[in-house]
Structure formats: C-alpha cells, structure tokens
Amino acid sequence: MYKKDFPFFENSSVTYLDNAATTQKPKEVINKVVDYYTHFCSNTHRSNHGDANKATKEFEATRETLKTFINATYTKEIIFTKGVSECLNMLASTFAKEFKTIIISSLEHHSNITPWHMQGRSLHKGLEVVNVKQNLEFDFEHFEELLKANPNSFVSITHVSNAFGVTHDIKEIARLTHKYDSYLLVDAAQSLAHFKVDVQDLDVDFYAMSSHKTFGPTGVGALYVKKELLEKLPVYQTGGATINDVSFERSIMLDAPYKYEAGTQNIAGVIGFKKALDYLNNITLKKVHEVENELYYYLHNELKKIEDIVLYNNTKNAIGSKSFNIKNINSEDIGILLDKMHIAVRAGHHCAQPIMKKLNIDGTIRVSIAFYNTKEDIDIFIKGLKKAIMMLKD
Ligand SMILES: Cc1ncc(COP(=O)(O)O)c(C=O)c1O
C-alpha cells in the first residue's frame, strides 16, 4: 500500500528487507532535493538575496519540524550533523571527554564504541559495559551497580539495537542515570523511524538521530541537546557560519545551534529530511508501529517453523530487525544466495562485533523491516531462505 510512494520500488525488482542499513526515500524527499538544486541552490545563513533567503528558511523549517517531531522544548536544541556517527564523535571529543567513566551497553553499534577507544579508553579503563541477559535484554541490576561504583559518569546507550532489534527502556535508564548524577546520550539511529519519541518524557540529555535511517537523505543527522546543557557543550569544529566576530586576536562564537554547525551544511539533505518527517507525520508513527508490529510477528512465526534455526531476539519489545542463524551454515553464504534471488538482507556482524563475540558467533542474517514492507515480501524471503538452505545443505 505504501510502496507506491517510494520510486525505488517502481524501478527495482528487489525485495528490500535491509531497512536498518538505510531506508528508501518517498518521492517528496527526492523531489525536494531536486527542487533545491534546480530552482534555489544557494548557501544558507550568509547572503541576503532571494534564493539564499529561501534556502535558509527551508533549512530552518527542518529544525522546527524535527523539534516538534521529538517534542524538544526549543528549536535551538537541534544541531545538524552528518549523522549519528558524527553526533557520537562530537560528544566523545567535547562534553564527554572530561568524564572519568563512560558507560555503554553490550549491544552498541561500532559508532558508539570506537569514539571511546579513540580517546584511549578500553574495558575497565574509563569504559564500562552493561551486560545483557540471556534473552539479550538490558541488565538493569548490573547498570545500577556500575553507576553506584562510578557516579558522575557519561552514559551512552542505543535506543534500539541495530543487530537484534532489542529496545532499551530509555525512561528507566534515564531515571537511574540521573539518580547517580550522570548524563545520558541515546543513539536513535534505529528508533526514530519506528515509533513516537518524546525527548522530554524520556528525559534524555542528548539524542543522536540519522536522516537516512528515517526515509530522508544520506549525510544528514541531528543531535538534540537539552537546553541547560547547551551552555556546557564545547564547540566541536569552527569555521564559516559559527562566528559572530573574528579578529586575528580572537573569535567570538555565535549562539547555539549555529556555533556547532561549521562550514556549509548538507543543505539539500537537511531540506529533504523535512519532507521525510512530514511524510511520517502524515501516516502517523502510531500506524507505522502497528504495521511493523504485525509484520514482525508474521516474520517471527514463519522463521520459527524453519528447521535448525537459531533465533536471537525473542524478546517482546523487539523492533525492526530480526536476527537468526541456521545451524552449520555460514550467514554470509545465505546472504549471497538471497542476493542472487534479488532479496536484500544483511548478513554478517552488522557493525556490532563485540556482541557477536560475546555470543560466540561470526554474525547473523538480519531481516529489517519498514512500514512499506508487506507479508508478500516476507513470503518471498522465506521461500528464498528455504531454497538457499537446501542448496547449502547438499
Ligand atoms: C545503532 C546505530 N548507531 C549508529 C549508526 C551510524 O549511523 P549513521 O549512518 O547516521 O552515522 C548506525 C548505522 O547503522 C546504527 O545502526
């Protein structure tokens, strides 16, 4: 029903079930990017001519839309970046750098592990990792133990695991984080496209978002920063458009959010991102969640019927991604055969090698759904999977 809104599906015969890697874009997003380059391509926040003013207005309209989308309090709490990876690197090299201890979870994407290593931290040397339980759920007891032993820490946790779809109870994580005088950054790469987020209700301090995982253009992200922390957040990079006044003696920065957005931004991408958010607002995230839930359980039940399957995320609160293996078959071999059948999934470690190592596996096959997928897509995938298994077992 929704595929007609996405030009990719008109032009491709692929059964696309790799939405955790990136999502397809509705035609409004593509048209807006083309419109910008075709009709009013100009820089933002600099020149004062008609096209430049239009570009600036549309750029700022995305900030306003995103503010409302996540229920932030002020527009200036939204800082544009290149994506979640840049948000995490920005905080790791500024605000979070001063903390003695960084606490992450076992289910983090490499983007929330390597920035901490770059600062010379490693396990038990400035970096602590919250365990997961047998069913991959967050171990709250262990989390509280870590916080008790390390008050005034910086906690950085993913909202939804990209490898397994497991969803963390961020509200409870925020409550405990603040109880121990610590700060919370949440990686929202895999949550924003799937359910309604309210940063005030969750009480997060920082929320890192990605446009391309949310039906918008690539190379765009945004960091939500709680207003009272904006004063404490050091500038990450400087240059054009971050400065109020410069002499050879000194630079006086602009106020937030501009002092955090150095150089010419991905204007077309930011403007296009608004169209993705408008599109989602139109369908409503409630509907998105409903459609995806139904697909998720259909997929789960179909997978359960397959002989020798090992399913990893049997938790009630999983979203988007479903991971599994077939005993004695390499996940990447299945991925290659599915690709030959024009079925796009991801096989391998999903940029989450530490949890794969903990589980003693090289990787998994990950099927990740979006609301435009259908039961028919899942039927095609299951049929392809059975064929691949047959070929590899012979
Ligand atoms: C959980 C998670 N965090 C971070 C990232 C990196 O996001 P971005 O591509 O916006 O830098 C990804 C991308 O796969 C992800 O799934």
Automatic annotation (TrEMBL):
Its EC number is 2.8.1.7. One of its GO terms (biological process) is cysteine metabolic process. It catalyses: (sulfur carrier)-H + L-cysteine = (sulfur carrier)-SH + L-alanine. The keyword Metal-binding does not apply. SUPFAM superfamilies: PLP-dependent transferases. Pfam families: Aminotran_5. CDD domains: SufS_like. Belongs to the class-V pyridoxal-phosphate-dependent aminotransferase family. Csd subfamily. This is Probable cysteine desulfurase. It comes from Malaciobacter halophilus.
